[in-house]
C-alpha cells in the first residue's frame, strides 16, 4: 500500500509520461495493472522485498543516462542457427530482424496486434503476472503490463527447428524501454528462447510463459556486457503436468540489474531449473530474486546461482521455495554462492523456505568466501601464474551454474564469454 | 480418558515391552497435557488496568526507584506511543488491546518485602516446590538425581519471579563471598545504580523495537547478575518466571554482566496457568561479556501454549541480545522453546571484540495452533570473530514454525567465520515449517556457510522403532529427540533432562 505522499508523488511522476492503448484485447488487463500500481505504489527503499537493492533509478521519471558501449566482440550466439528478433532501444527493427515466420509457431508483435478485438495471448498477457503479485507485490511488472509498448507473442504449436533469439540493441544514451513478451507452449512441444544485449539505458522487461502438459521451454540469456544500463526484468512461468522449464542467465556488469523469476509448478511431475552466473567488477549491482511455488505433487525445482564479485561490486540473491499444502513428494533444491575476489565487494542473500506439506525434501545452501588458497597453491605449484590460476578457479566455480544449460553448444558459448571477460578483467 | 487411566494403560504396556528405553517410557507417560497449567490461589494486588504515565510512575514507585530510573521509563513510554507493532513475523494473532492489560500484579503478601526466604508466604514457596524449583538452599533442582557428594558441586542459585515481583533469591550470601551479585533487578537499581546505569539499555537500547520499548517503560522485575573480573561463578544461576495473575502481562528485564575474564552459566525457566484468554509476556534480556569473559545462557520456555483448539496461551515477544564487548569474549545461547501460543524471539550476539565468539543452539517445537518465529542475529564487527548457529524446528498439528536469522559480516570483521545449520521436521500435513535467513557479507576474508533442510520424520527410522515394539508416539518422540540431539547436548544437565521430556510432551497427539 502507498504509505505516504512522497511515494504517491514518485509514482505519479513515473506514470505521467506513459501511454497505453485505450482499446483492443489488452486494454482491460492493462487498466487492472494500472489500478494495482495505484493501490500498492512503486517499490521504495523501505520495502522488505527491496531490502538489498535500491529501486530509485528504476522508478524515477526518466532513465538515467547510460553511455553507449562499443562492443568489439562477435555477437553472442552468432554462430547458432536462430530466428532473430531485434529491438533497438525497445523498438522493433524490421531490417535487422528475420521474417517472423517459422514452421510450428505463430509469432505476432504486441504493437501490431494489440488493437485487435481478440487474440490468443489475451488468456496469458498480464494474467500470469497477476498471479505473481501475491504474496509479494511486483509493481514494476504491473507497470510493464500496463504500459508495454511492444513485445512478441509466440504460440508454439509444434517444436520449431531453431531457437528464437531476442536481440536487444542499445543505441541511445537515455532510452527507456518497456517490452512484454508472451510465450505459450502447447502440449508436447518444446522451444528454446535466447535473449542477448543490454536493450536500453533503462529496460523494463516482462516475459510470461505458459507451459501446457508435456511441454518444454529452454531459456538462455546473456544480459549484455560491461555497459551502464539499468534493468528490471520479470519472468512468470506457469507449468503444466510433466512440463519442463529451464532458465539460465549470464549477467556481466551493468550498473543495476534486478532479475525476478516467478515460477509456479501447478501440474504434477513438472520440473523447473533456474540458474544464473554473474560476474561483477566495479560499481555494479546485480540482484536475482527467484520465487518457486510448488502447487502439485511430485515436482522438482532447482535454483543454482553463482556470483563472482570484485572492486566494489554487489551481488544479491533472494530465493524462495514455497511448498503449498498438498504438494507432497516435492523435491526442492537451492544453492547460492559467491566468490569475493577482494575486500570491497559484498554478497547479500536471503534464501527462504516456506513449507506447508510434510512429505517433502527441501534444502538450501548459501556460502560466501574468498578463493581457496589451497587450490590456488596447488595450481601455482604446477607452474601456473597466480592470475591465471585465479581465473581457472573462478571459471570452475561459475561452471556449476552454466552446466544447468542443457544444450552443450549454448553452454560452451557462455563459457567462452566468461573466459574472455575474465581475461579482460584480469587485475594488472 | 483421564490421566490416571492413561497411566494404567502405560503400566500395562510397559510389562509387554521389554527392552524399551525407560527414559522414553517415562517421557511418553508424562504425555497428558500441559502439566504446569494450575493456578496458585493467592491474593493479588493489581495496578489499575491500562497503560498511562501514571502506571509507569506507579511501577517505579512500587520498586522504590530513584528518579533517573523513573525518567528513563517515562522516556521509553513516550517513544513507545510513537511506535507501531511489528508485523513482519510469520505469526498471526488477534490485535492486542494494550489498555486491557494489567501491567503490575504482586502477591499481597509481598507488600512488605520479606527479609529472608523464611518470611516468604508458604503458598508462594509451595508454588515453586510444585514446579520443581525448591527455594531452599540445600537443595538442587528437583527431579535431578546425583550422587550425594556431587550435590555440593551442583548448586543452583535461583531467583524466583512471580508475576511482577521477585519472591526470593537463594544462595545470595555464598555468591557474595565470591563477589558475584545476583539479585532482583529492582534491588540492583537501588543498591548498585552505578552498574545498572552503565549497562542498562546499552545492548538493547530503550527504543530498540516496539516490545523492548514497552518493556523499558513497564518492566517490573527480573534478575541482575554481575560477575567481577576473573571470577568463575561458583554455581549455576537461574531465574524461574511464573505468571499467575489473570489478564496480566509479565515484563521482566534481565541484565547480566560478565566482567573481564569471568564465567557464568545462567538458566531460565518459565510457566503459566492454563487459561482461555491469551496473556502477554514481553521481556528484555541484555548480556554483556567483557574481555575474555564467557556467558552461557540457557532457556527452557514452557509458557502455556494454549489448548488443542488454539484457545489461550502466552504471547511471548522477547528481545534478547548479547554484546561481546571485549576481545575473546564468548556468549552461548541455548533455547528449548516448547510453550507459548505465539513466540517472537531472536537471541542475538554482537561480536564487537576481536576473536569473540557467539553460538546459538535452538529447538523450537510447535504443536496444535502454536506459532513460533524465532532465530538469531550474529553481527560480526571484530576481526577473527566466530559464530555458529544450530536450529532445529519441529512442527506438528496445525502449527507454524519459522526460523528467522541474520548473519552479517561487516567490512572490518576480517577472517571471520559463520556456520549455520537449520533443520526442520514436519509431523503431519497440516503444519508449516519455514526458513528465512538473511546473509550479508561485506569482506572477502570471511567465510559464511548456511545450510537448511526440511523433511518429515524418516519412515525407516519409525519402522525400526515400531518393529521393536514401540507405539507410534513413542517412536516419534525417540526420533525427534535424536533430531534434536545436537542442541540437547549443549544444555546444562538439569535442563537437558527436562528438555528431553518436554520434547515428547509437546508432541502429544501429533501422530495417529
Could you please describe the fold and organization of this structure?
- The complex is a heterodimer of chains A (428) and B (512).
- Chain A has helices at 5-16, 27-40, 56-59, 110-113, 127-131, 139-147, 373-381, 386-402, 408-424, and strands at residues 83-88, 91-92, 105-109, 152-156, 164-169, 176-185, 190-196, 202-211, 216-222, 230-239, 244-252, 256-265, 271-281, 285-294, 300-310, 314-323, 330-340, 346-355, 360-369.
- With 428 residues, chain A is α/β, with parallel strands linked by helices.
- Chain A has one domain (5-370).
- In chain A, the strands form two sheets. A ten-stranded mixed β-sheet of chain A has the order 2-1-5-7-9-11-13-15-17-19, covered by helices on one side.
- In chain A, a hairpin with a 2-residue loop joins strand 1 (83-88) and strand 2.
- In chain A, helix 2 packs antiparallel against helix 6 (139-147), helix 7 (373-381) packs across helix 8 and helix 8 packs antiparallel against helix 9 (408-424).
- The longest helix of chain A is centred in the C-terminal third of the chain and has 17 residues, at 386-402.
- In chain A, 55% of the residues are buried.
- The model of chain A has no long low-confidence stretch (mean pLDDT 94).
- Chain B has one domain (43-453).
- The two termini of chain B are 16 Å apart.
- The radius of gyration of chain B is 22 Å and the shape is globular.
- Chain B is α/β, with parallel strands linked by helices and 512 residues long.
- Mean pLDDT of chain B is 85; it is low at 1-20, 27-32 and 138-146.
- In chain B, strands 4-3-7-9-12-14-17-20-22-24 form a ten-stranded mixed β-sheet, covered by helices on one side. Chain B has a six-stranded parallel beta barrel with strand order 13-15-18-21-19-16. A two-stranded antiparallel ribbon of chain B has the order 1-2.
- The chains are: A alpha/beta (428), B alpha/beta (512).
- Chains A and B meet through strand 18 and strand 19 of A and strand 22, strand 23 and strand 24 of B.
- Strand 18 of chain A pairs antiparallel with strand 23 (432-441) of chain B.
Amino acid at each position: 500500500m502507498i504509505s505516504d505522499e512522497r511515494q504517491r508523488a514518485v509514482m505519479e511522476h513515473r506514470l505521467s509520461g506513459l501511454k497505453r492503448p485505450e482499446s483492443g484485447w489488452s486494454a482491460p488487463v492493462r487498466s487492472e495493472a494500472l489500478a494495482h500500481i495505484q493501490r500498492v505504489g512503486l517499490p521504495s527503499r523501505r520495502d522488505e522485498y527491496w531490502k538489498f537493492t535500491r529501486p530509485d533509478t528504476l522508478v524515477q521519471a526518466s532513465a538515467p543516462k547510460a553511455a553507449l558501449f562499443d562492443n568489439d566482440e562477435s555477437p553472442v550466439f552468432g554462430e547458432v542457427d536462430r530466428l532473430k528478433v531485434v529491438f533497438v532501444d525497445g523498438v522493433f527493427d524490421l531490417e535487422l530482424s528475420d521474417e517472423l515466420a517459422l514452421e510450428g509457431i505463430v509469432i505476432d508483435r504486441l504493437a501490431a496486434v494489440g488493437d485487435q478485438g481478440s487474440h490468443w495471448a489475451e488468456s496469458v498477457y498480464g494474467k500470469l503476472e497477476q498471479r505473481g503479485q501475491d504474496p509479494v507485490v511486483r509493481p514494476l511488472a504491473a507497470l510493464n503490463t500496463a504500459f508495454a509498448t511492444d513485445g512478441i507473442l509466440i504460440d508454439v504449436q509444434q517444436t520449431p527447428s531453431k531457437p528464437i533469439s531476442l536481440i536487444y540493441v542499445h543505441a541511445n544514451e537515455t532510452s527507456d524501454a518497456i517490452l512484454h513478451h508472451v510465450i505459450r507452449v502447447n502440449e508436447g512441444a518444446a522451444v528454446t528462447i535466447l535473449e542477448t544485449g543490454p536493450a536500453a539505458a533503462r529496460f523494463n522487461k516482462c516475459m510470461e510463459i505458459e507451459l501446457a502438459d508435456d511441454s518444454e521451454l529452454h531459456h538462455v540469456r546473456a544480459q549484455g556486457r560491461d555497459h551502464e544500463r539499468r534493468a528490471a526484468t520479470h519472468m512468470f512461468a506457469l507449468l503444466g503436468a510433466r512440463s519442463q522449464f529451464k532458465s539460465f542467465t549470464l549477467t556481466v556488469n551493468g550498473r543495476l540489474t534486478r532479475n525476478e523469476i516467478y515460477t509456479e509448478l501447478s501440474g504434477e511431475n513438472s520440473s523447473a531449473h533456474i540458474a544464473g552466473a554473474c560476474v561483477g567488477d566495479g560499481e555494479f549491482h546485480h540482484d536475482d530474486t527467484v520465487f518457486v511455488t510448488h502447487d502439485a505433487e511430485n515436482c522438482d525445482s532447482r535454483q543454482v546461482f553463482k556470483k563472482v564479485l570484485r572492486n566494489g561490486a554487489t551481488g544479491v540473491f533472494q530465493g524462495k521455495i514455497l511448498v503449498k499444502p498438498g504438494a507432497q513428494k516435492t523435491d526442492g533444491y537451492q544453492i547460492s554462492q559467491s566468490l569475493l575476489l577482494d575486500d570491497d565487494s559484498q554478497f547479500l542473500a536471503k534464501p527462504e523456505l516456506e513449507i506447508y506439506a510434510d512429505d517433502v525434501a527441501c534444502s538450501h545452501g548459501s556460502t560466501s568466501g574468498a578463493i581457496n588458497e589451497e587450490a590456488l597453491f596447488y595450481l601455482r605449484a604446477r607452474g601456473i601464474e597466480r592470475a591465471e590460476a585465479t581465473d581457472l578457479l573462478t571459471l570452475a566455480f561459475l561452471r556449476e551454474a552454466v552446466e544447468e544449460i542443457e544444450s552443450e553448444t549454448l553452454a560452451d558459448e557462455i563459457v567462452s564469454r566468461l573466459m574472455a571477460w575474465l581475461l579482460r578483467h584480469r587485475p594488472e | 480418558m483421564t490421566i490416571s487411566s492413561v497411566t494404567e494403560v502405560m503400566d500395562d504396556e510397559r510389562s509387554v515391552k521389554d527392552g524399551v528405553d525407560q527414559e522414553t517410557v517415562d517421557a511418553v507417560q508424562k504425555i497428558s497435557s500441559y502439566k504446569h497449567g494450575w493456578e496458585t490461589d493467592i491474593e493479588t494486588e493489581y495496578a489499575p488496568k491500562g497503560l498511562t504515565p501514571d502506571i509507569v510512575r506507579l511501577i517505579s514507585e512500587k520498586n522504590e526507584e530513584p528518579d533517573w530510573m523513573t525518567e528513563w521509563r517515562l522516556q521509553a513510554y513516550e517513544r513507545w506511543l510513537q511506535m507501531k507493532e511489528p508485523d513482519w513475523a510469520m505469526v498471526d494473532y488477534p490485535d492486542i488491546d494494550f489498555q486491557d492489560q494489567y501491567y503490575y500484579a504482586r502477591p499481597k503478601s509481598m507488600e512488605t518485602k520479606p527479609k529472608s526466604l523464611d518470611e516468604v508466604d508458604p503458598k508462594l514457596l509451595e508454588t515453586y516446590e510444585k514446579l520443581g524449583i525448591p527455594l531452599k538452599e540445600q537443595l538442587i533442582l528437583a527431579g535431578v538425581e546425583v550422587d550425594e557428594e556431587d550435590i555440593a558441586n551442583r548448586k543452583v542459585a535461583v531467583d524466583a519471579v512471580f508475576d511482577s515481583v521477585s519472591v526470593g533469591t537463594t544462595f545470595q550470601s555464598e555468591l557474595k563471598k565470591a563477589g558475584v551479585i545476583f539479585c532482583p533487578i529492582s534491588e540492583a537499581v537501588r543498591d548498585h545504580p552505578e552498574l545498572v546505569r552503565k549497562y542498562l539499555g546499552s545492548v538493547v537500547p530503550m527504543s530498540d523495537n516496539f516490545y523492548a520499548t514497552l518493556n523499558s517503560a513497564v518492566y517490573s522485575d527480573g534478575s541482575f547478575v554481575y560477575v567481577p573480573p576473573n571470577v568463575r561463578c561458583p554455581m549455576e544461576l537461574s531465574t524461574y518466571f511464573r505468571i499467575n495473575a489473570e489478564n496480566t502481562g509479565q515484563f521482566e528485564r534481565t541484565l547480566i554482566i560478565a566482567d573481564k575474564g569471568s564465567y557464568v552459566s545462567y538458566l531460565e525457566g518459565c510457566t503459566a496457568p492454563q487459561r482461555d484468554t491469551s496473556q502477554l509476556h514481553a521481556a528484555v534480556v541484555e548480556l554483556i561479556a567483557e574481555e575474555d569473559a564467557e556467558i552461557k545462557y540457557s532457556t527452557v520456555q514452557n509458557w502455556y501454549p494454549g489448548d488443542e483448539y488454539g484457545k489461550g496461551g502466552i504471547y511471548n515477544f522477547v528481545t534478547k541480545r548479547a554484546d561481546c564487548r571485549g576481545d575473546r569474549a564468548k556468549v552461548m545461547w541455548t533455547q528449548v522453546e516448547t510453550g507459548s501460543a505465539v513466540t517472537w524471539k531472536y537471541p542475538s550476539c554482537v561480536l564487537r571484540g576481536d576473536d569473540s565468539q557467539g553460538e546459538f543452539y535452538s529447538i523450537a517445537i510447535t504443536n496444535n495452533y502454536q506459532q513460533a518465529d524465532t532465530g538469531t542475529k550474529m553481527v560480526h564487527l571484530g576481526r577473527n570473530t566466530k559464530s555458529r548457529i544450530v536450529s532445529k524446528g519441529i512442527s506438528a498439528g496445525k502449527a507454524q514454525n519459522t526460523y528467522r536469522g541474520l548473519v552479517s559480516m561487516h567490512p572490518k570483521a576480517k577472517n571471520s567465520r559463520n556456520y549455520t545449520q537449520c533443520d526442520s521436521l514436519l509431523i503431519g500435513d497440516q503444519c508449516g515449517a519455514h526458513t528465512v535467513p538473511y546473509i550479508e557479507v561485506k569482506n572477502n576474508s570471511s567465510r559464511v556457510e548456511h545450510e537448511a533442510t526440511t523433511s518429515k520424520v524418516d519412515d525407516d527410522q519409525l519402522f525400526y522403532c515400531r518393529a521393536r515394539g514401540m507405539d507410534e508416539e513413542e517412536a516419534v518422540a525417540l526420533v525427534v529427540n535424536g533430531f534434536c540431539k545436537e542442541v540437547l547436548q549443549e544444555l546444562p544437565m538439569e535442563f537437558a533432562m527436562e528438555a528431553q521430556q518436554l520434547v515428547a510432551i509437546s508432541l502429544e497427539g501429533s501422530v495417529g
